[in-house]
Amino acid sequence: xxxxxxxxxxxxxxxxxxxxxxxxxxxxxxxxxxxxxxxxxxxxxxxxxxxxxxxxxxxxxxxxxxxxxxxxxxxxxxxxxxxxxxxxxxxxxxxxxxxxxxxxxxxxxxxxxxxxxxxxxxxxxxxxxxxxxxxxxxxxxxxxxxxxxxxxxxxxxxxxxxxxxxxxxxxxxxxxxxxxxxxxxxxxxxxxxxxxxxxxxxxxx
Length: 205
What we know:
mainly alpha; single chain; about 0% strand; about 65% helix
């Protein structure tokens, strides 16, 4: 089921935006940790290169974990190894949420000004794209919540090197971080703007 959902996400992207960027798959990297190092650098240097960043993050999701000896934290036992993997999954999914929300903002019109009527159809098409991206962001948010719940089975066990991931999980568990609510507000606003554009005609311009 999870694999099918990811396939559908990829299919939506291809339909809406065309083929995924080839550069995201130009290198044959083996492990999550290898790809994460590159992703981290990419997000720091080019945070708004959404298509390429998403390509790398998707590649990281599909990759295997390295041996615990090469983890991004010191792993002392099997429980810490399980926690590490849960938090890693959560962190990658959160990064994808951020990227899809950023990408959606490129197409999201917050106000339908009357003088935008000549470009009404283009604006409506942009809203369709934004809506699709918000929907994909919501999928990855649900995945992040799921992995955070898995990680919460091991409270106060996080290695120091991934304390930030643990903090993210804590914020999810307490409701301090709630992208579902944020996306819901964006979708409500999007529908309001869509209706405003749909009501426009030559008499309102």
